[in-house]
Structure formats: C-alpha cells, structure tokens
C-alpha cells in the first residue's frame, strides 16, 4: 500500500510540474518533442531504455563487468570452504526476450546464464587468473557468446609444472556444453535470480549448475564475499516452496586448455588456492553416494521428494580437507555423469544416409 501511495505522489508531483507553462517549454526544448519526428525519437529512446539489456554489445558490457569486478575489484578474498557456495545474480526479462507465447524465449536463457557463470567461475579461479598480472596481463577474450573466460595466465596448472615461461603461453577457459531443463515460464519484465555454483569436476571438466528462480525465495545464511550483508535467513525454507520457485535448471561444463594440453581441474583449483594439497598416500574412504545421502535407492536428487539438500555441502563442514571436498565432489558427479552420456549423441548423426525431408533456408543476407 505504501508503495502505491509513493508512486501516486511522484506522479502527482510530475503532473504539477508539467502543468506549468515554463516547465513545458523547457521540457519540449530539451526533448525535441515539437521538432519533426520528435515524438518518434522519444518513443525509440524509451524502447531502448526498456530493453537496454538486449542492445548491441550490452552482453559484452555485462560480461566484462562481471569478469573485471571479480578478478580485480572484488575486495574480499574468497575462503576455500566457499568452493561449493553459489553466486546469486539478478536480472529480468525485457520485451525483446519475449516470444509469441508471451514469455521469455528459451534461447535467451543461455545469454543470461553466461553472466552468472562468469561471476561464479572467476570468483573461485581468481587466485590462478590473477597470476596473469605477475607476468604481464593479456586481455581476456570470448570466442563467442557461449565462451565465458579466455585468459593468458602464468599460473593455472602450475601444480604439475606446466606454467608458462615468459608469460607467453595462453590458457583458455572454454565452455564445452550446456544442458537446460525448463520448468516454468518467465513473464515479460518479470524479475528472476540465477543461483550458480560449482557442481563437481572430473579429470577434464568443471561442472557448474545454475538455478533460475523467483527472487526472494532463497534466504542466504551468509555472504562469503560480502560479509557486510546481513543474513536473510530466519528459518529453513520449505523444500516444496524452494522447488516451486524454480523456473529452469541448467548444467554447464568448462575445460581449461593450455594450447592442446588440458589442465586437470584439481590442479587448477589447487593453484587458485581453493583446495589443499593432497596428503601423500591419501585415499577417500567415505561412503558411496547412496550412503552419504541416507538413501539406498540412489535418487539423483538425493531425496525421493526432490529435496535438494542432498547435493549441497553439509552444514557445519568447517574442517576443509580432502575428505569433505571429495564427498561434495562425488555428490555432484552423479549429475555430471548423467550429462556426459549425451556426448555419444554426436555419433548418431548419419549425414543423410537414409534421406532427408528437404532443405529450407532461413532469413539471411549472407546466404541464398
């Protein structure tokens, strides 16, 4: 009610100003509304402002804003025990992202998730990427809108003696694939949050999971990179309410390359200071996935009712050692292994051996 009263008061004040002839003349001169085509220029400006997120090169601005801030301007060092914590980013669905069903087009989800994953991955890999500056900084580049970070570094992979000499060897962090499940539609100009965290890793790939959710449903208990923020959590949120707030869930995988050489994720995390060195002769002796989650049936979500707590770091895990890290990595790896099965689909394409329905051109100025 108070918000409605405030909006009404602002509207009344603006109307009072506009009713004054002197203000009307100044406003008309400043906006050019009386000039030929002035109204259309104002409408075009308003349309651009309402869809600023989708203007040319704004995606690049969003990407570099996330990259530069997390690498060079983030004031708080990331604690290693925050390795599996999510980054939360907020955005909305402007008109240019709406399809003919009057909700956010599925294809636009991926551009938004690029930004969220950039925040997350540069946060946890900051220690390794910052070593770029020690040997001379090389401008990061994105090969396309799906690539998150490409950087020349002297640090990533240093744990196995692959560090570059002279800072000339380029390391690239590249996106290797995304799989997204859509659950609910996002309406025009509806706000939503993206919660992105490290899910797991194997010998080659990092796996990141992103949940697009209704804003305000998640209540963070703490903010590792923003300790000045107060906790919003007063009590546990009902699991059904959490699940009902999800618009979509996506899993993406990244690989770190040094030329043709793949840098193992574990070594990159060690170089970034996010995991300790493994004790000599260490062997994981924890329970299997079903035992860790208290279920013998091995549901992929950790609970038969869809509760997501089973794949998140356990509360009170303060002793940051490889037993804790490996337990959380294996929990997420169940989802990652299901995702990697899709790699075999590359071999299903036959190249038209059994014939095709036809060839049909899309709208393009480059091809006929």
UniProtKB/TrEMBL annotation:
Keywords assigned: Membrane, Transmembrane, Transmembrane helix
SUPFAM superfamilies per UniProt: Thioesterase/thiol ester dehydrase-isomerase
Residues passing through the membrane, by range: 40-59
Pfam families recorded: 4HBT_2 (PF13279)
Family per similarity comment: Belongs to the lcsJ thioesterase family.
Protein name per the record: Capsule polysaccharide biosynthesis protein
Lineage: Eukaryota, Fungi, Dikarya, Ascomycota, Pezizomycotina
């Amino acid at each position: 009610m108070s918000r409605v009263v405030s909006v009404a008061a602002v509207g009344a004040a603006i109307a009072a100003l506009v009713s004054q002839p002197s203000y009307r003349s100044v406003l008309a001169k400043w906006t050019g509304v009386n000039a030929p085509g002035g109204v259309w220029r104002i409408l075009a400006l308003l349309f651009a402002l309402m869809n600023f997120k989708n203007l040319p090169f704004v995606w690049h601005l969003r990407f570099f804003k996330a990259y530069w801030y997390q690498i060079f301007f983030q004031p708080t060092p990331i604690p290693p025990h925050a390795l599996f914590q999510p980054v939360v980013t907020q955005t909305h669905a402007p008109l240019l992202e709406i399809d003919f069903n009057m909700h956010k087009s599925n294809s636009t989800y991926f551009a938004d998730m690029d930004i969220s994953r950039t925040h997350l991955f540069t946060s946890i890999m900051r220690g390794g990427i910052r070593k770029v500056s020690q040997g001379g900084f090389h401008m990061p580049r994105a090969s396309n809108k799906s690539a998150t970070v490409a950087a020349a570094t002297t640090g990533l992979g240093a744990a196995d003696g692959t560090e570059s000499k002279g800072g000339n060897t380029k390391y690239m962090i590249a996106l290797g694939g995304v799989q997204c499940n859509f659950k609910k539609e996002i309406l025009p100009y509806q706000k939503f949050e993206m919660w992105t965290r490290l899910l797991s890793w194997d010998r080659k790939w990092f796996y990141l999971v992103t949940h697009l959710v209704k804003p305000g449903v998640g209540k963070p208990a703490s903010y590792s990179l923003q300790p000045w923020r107060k906790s919003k959590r007063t009590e546990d949120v009902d699991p059904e309410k959490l699940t009902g707030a999800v618009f979509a869930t996506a899993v993406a995988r990244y690989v770190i390359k040094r030329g043709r050489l793949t840098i193992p994720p574990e070594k990159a995390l060690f170089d970034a200071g996010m995991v300790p060195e493994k004790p000599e002769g260490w062997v994981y002796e924890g329970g299997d996935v079903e035992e860790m989650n208290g279920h013998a049936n091995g549901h992929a979500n950790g609970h038969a009712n869809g509760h997501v707590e089973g794949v998140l770091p356990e509360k009170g895990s303060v002793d940051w050692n490889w037993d804790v890290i490996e337990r959380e990595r294996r929990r997420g790896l169940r989802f990652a292994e299901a995702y990697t099965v899709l790699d075999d689909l590359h071999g299903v394409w036959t190249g038209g051996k059994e014939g095709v329905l036809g060839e049909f051109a899309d709208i393009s100025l480059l091809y006929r």
